[in-house]
What does this fold into?
Amino acid sequence: MKYAVDASKMKQIDEFTIEKIGIPAMVLMERAAYETVSVIKRNIKRTDRILVVCGTGNNGGDGVAAGRILYGEGYDVAILFIGEETKCSPQMKEQLAIARNLELPFENCNKLHAYNIIIDAIFGVGLTRPISGYYADIIEQINASQSKVFSVDIPSGISADSGKLMSIAVKADYTITFGYQKHGLLLYPGVEYAGKIIVADIGFPKIAAEQANLDTFYYEKEDLNRLPLRKSYSNKGSYGRVLVIAGSKGVSGAAYLSAKSAYRCGAGLVKVMTSEENRAIIQTLLPEALFSAYDEVTEDSEGRLRRLLSELDWASVIVVGPGLGQTKEAEYLLDIVMNKAKVPVIYDADAITLLAGWMDYQKLAGQSRIDYLTERLQEQSVLTPHLKELSRLIRVPVSDISDNLIDTAIQCSYNSKLTYVMKDARTIVSHQHQRYINVSGNHGMATGGSGDVLTGIIAALIAQGMTLFEASCLGVYIHGYAGDVAAQEKGHYFMMAEDLINALEKVLQLKGQ
Ligand SMILES: NC(=O)C1=CN([C@@H]2O[C@H](COP(=O)(O)OP(=O)(O)OC[C@H]3O[C@@H](n4cnc5c(N)ncnc54)[C@H](O)[C@@H]3O)[C@@H](O)[C@H]2O)[C@@H](O)CC1
Ligand SMILES: [K+]
It folds into this structure.
């Protein structure tokens, strides 16, 4: 598990390190420059011509210092300084003075084509407004060049907070980022602009991060070790009972995928509750699953309610929604789950659309929609909307959500005990003040049934004793990792949801490796 920061957290860490600990800003800058140089040296030739493009802030200062170090080692380097010198930060002024004392060559912009390596040190985490004019022209020229580009801290033009373009951004081959991953390097489109990302330690002390209360993290391969322990002295009762309330007349695929994924991730028992019509197909495709019809024709309504309640009591975790439809019947089932379930519930797909419909009906808008969910759903609930479903749920346009993923996640969960899994190319899991950004997965997973698999995985992890937030983060990571394995084996075009389930075999075996 690693933390990621936005611009304001990074500033807090910087300031604490400099002001409270007493490490001078110039020392940090020199270390940043050395780390940058060491990555660059590993990836260029002695004969390359290097242009360092520097802005007025400390990002520019890092660039000038890196240029100076390379120059000292005999590389062919020039500095292109863009901006007004009077507006430079104190450290940038110092770096410029040192470079001039050493008579480093300074270049002007129309010579960009004469260099084949560009160090992009125009803007870092201090970028606060859209880029225009001269700066935008230079960035356009960098992107049009054939040069190999190294971005210092973050590609200039990418928002460190959201990953969005501040009108235009440098397309880098490598990004050397300091101290911590930045949100903007993990989120789209920033991740595509960054190229290969190297997180370099430049000596921020641990205590600086602690006082900044870092609250956003991501997982890496070793986090697969978080999978719940399996004990040798155990039986199927030890690993929980997942009830999947899914599917409708003639729609059985979602229920099957969810239930099978839950089994494949270690759940002890999985029961599919679906339409009687799906009995034969579910029992044929997944004989391991228990079966219960929610629409048995022989029952009266009281008998039916009693049976449904006993199924809820049987479960240690409930999934409701995949392929359930939006009929009166689905509404009835959802209502029972919302009011009667005493165990964790994962609300997915049609269940989320139905919830949105209820709020439309009650004419709720804005924050009151989020508050309604907080009040109406029991604390032990996970909601797994993709952005379109989330848009319907909280009545915010999809474009606004995707421009402000992290802020939306904060808004949904800071005052609530619910866990939100906001599914996108970079899924965000949010619970109270903590957020997880998922970095596994690929576009081959944008295929029918992929979400049903995720729901099953999360349910299995909850069934085996993980907290809802932990299970959601790890579930999303495993799901994406399985997608990466499937893409490798089958290709992005060919792969489909069933391949994700098959790939779980390899992913889960990575635990302990
Ligand atoms: N403060 C520190 O101790 C350290 C900072 N470091 C570097 O410093 C960077 C942050 O430095 P700064 O906070 O000085 O900020 P930046 O260097 O990222 O850029 C801010 C400068 O650009 C200007 N600016 C912002 N948006 C603009 C726009 N759209 N058009 C034109 N000008 C614009 C600002 O007015 C300011 O002068 C980090 O990304 C990192 O590279 C590193 O040296 C490590 C230590
Ligand atoms: K930069």
